Amino acid sequence: MYELLYRRVLQHIPAETAHRLAFAAIRFAGAVPGLGAGMRRVLGPADPVLRVRTLGMDLPGPLGLAAGFDKDAEGVDGLTALGFAYVEVGTVTAQAQPGNPRPRMFRLPADRALVNRMGFNNHGAAAAAERLRRRVEGGRAGSRRRTAYVGVNIGKTKVVPEAEAVGDYVAGARRLAPYADYLVVNVSSPNTPGLRDLQAVERLRPLLAAVRQTLDEAPQAAQAGHAGAPEPRRVPLLVKIAPDLSDADVDAVADLALDLGLDGIIATNTTIARDGLRTDAAEVTELGAGGLSGAPLKERALEVIRRLHARVGDRLVLVAVGGIENADDAWERIRAGATLVQAYTGFIYGGPAWPRKVHREIARRARAAGYSSVAEAVGTSGRPGPGAHR
C-alpha cells in the first residue's frame, strides 16, 4: 500500500514537502491519547531476543531512527509508535537557524537514495531542550508515561566562526545534557562550511574534551529518568564520522575516542561522493552539492564499521548507519561489530511499517543462528553462530 502511495502521490511532491506532511501525520498519531500506545503495542519490538542493553539504556531492539528526520524533538512518541526502539533527534545547533535555501532535498529513486543540503535547519538548543523537558517531566508526573529513549545530535551553528566552534558545541551540550539519554557530536555533515575540518584529530580533541567536561558538570545531568530514577548519571558521548574519511583517519578518530574516554562512534554520515550511481550523471550534477544517503553508502559504511571494530573491539559502542535498507543489512552490521543500527533513507523508501518488519526479521535471523540475544551476535562476522554446532 505504501509503495503504491509513494509511486502515485509522494514521489510527485517535492521531497521536503512530502517529509513535512508525513511527519505531521506521525506527530499527530503520537499525540492522540491511546493511539500511540496502541500502535506501539502492535508495531513495537517485543521479542525478547531483540533486547539490547547499552549506553545506560535498556532498549527493546537495536534499530533506531537516525538524526535528520526529527530535527527539533517534535515527534518522538509518534516515531517510536511506528516501531523504532529509540530516536536520535537533531542535528540541533546552539542557536536557531533556517538552514540552506530551498530546494535542498532531492530523491534519487533509481538508487534508493537521497541528496540533501538542509544545513542544520532547526529551532535551536533551547527550544529542543524545552520540548524534551516537557516529555521527561510529564512522564515523571505520571500524566504521560515516557515511552522512548532519546539521543541528541548536536552540530555547529553556521554563523559561528570555526575558531569559536568549541564554545558553540559546549553551549548546545549544556542546554541539552539534562534530557539526553546519550549525546552525539556531529562533525561530519557536508552542509555546514568547514564542519568536516573538525574531524582532524588535532581539532577534534579539544572539542570532544570540552563537550565531555560539560556533560560531566551539567546540573541534573541525564536525569531523563526513563525508568523513573531521579539520580544523575553520566551522559554517554559519541562522535559521528563521515564515510569519506581515509582509513588512517578512521583509525585516528577511534584512537582519540578511546583516549578521551568516549562511549562510542556512529558510522557513518552522508557522503559527498557520487560514484556508481544509476541516476543519470547530468541529473545528479544538476541537483548540486549535498550529502548522499541511502543504498549507495552501504559498502563503505560497512567497511568503516568493520575497521572500527577491528581497532576498538568492545571498548566502544559502535552504531551503524548508512545504506541500511532491510534486515539483512542490519544483521550484517551487527555481526560486523555494531551494537546498534540506525536508518533514515531506508525508512523513507520503506514506509511506516518498515521498522516493525526489520525488527521482526532481525529476531528471526538471530534465532535461526542460535543466538538467545542479538547482543551475542555483535562482532561475530566470520564465525559460525552457536546453532551451527547443534
CA-atom Rg in angstroms: 20 Å
Task: Give the biggest beta sheet.
Answer: 8 strands, parallel, barrel
Q: What is the multimeric organization of the chains shown? A: single chain
CATH H level: which superfamily? Aldolase class I
SS element count, helices? 13
Low-confidence stretches: 140-146, 221-230
CATH architecture name: Alpha-Beta Barrel
Kindly identify the CATH topology.
Answer: TIM Barrel
Shape type: globular
Query: β content, as a range?
Result: 5-15%
CATH class: Alpha Beta
Structural class comes to alpha/beta
Quantity of strands, as a count: 13
Question: What is the N-to-C order of secondary-structure elements (H for helix, E for strand)?
Answer: HHHEEEHEEEHEHEHEHEHEHEHEHH
Mean pLDDT: 90
Helix content range: 25-40%
> Termini separation (Å)?
41 Å
Domains, number: 1
Major beta sheet, strand line-up: 3-4-7-8-9-10-12-13
How would you describe this structure to a colleague?
39% of the residues lie in helices and 15% in strands. The protein has helices spanning 2-8, 15-31, 35-43, 76-81, 125-141, 165-176, 201-217, 247-260, 281-287, 298-312, 327-336, 345-350, 354-368; strands spanning 52-54, 57-59, 63-65, 86-93, 105-108, 113-116, 149-155, 182-186, 237-241, 264-267, 291-294, 317-320, 340-343. The chain has an eight-stranded parallel β-barrel with strand order 3-4-7-8-9-10-12-13, surrounded by six helices. A three-stranded antiparallel sheet has the order 5-6-11, with no helix packed on it. It has a two-stranded antiparallel sheet with strand order 1-2. Helix 6 runs parallel beside helix 7 and helix 7 runs parallel beside helix 8 (247-260). FMN binds at residues 67-71, 91, 153, 186, 240, 268, 294, 323, 344-345.
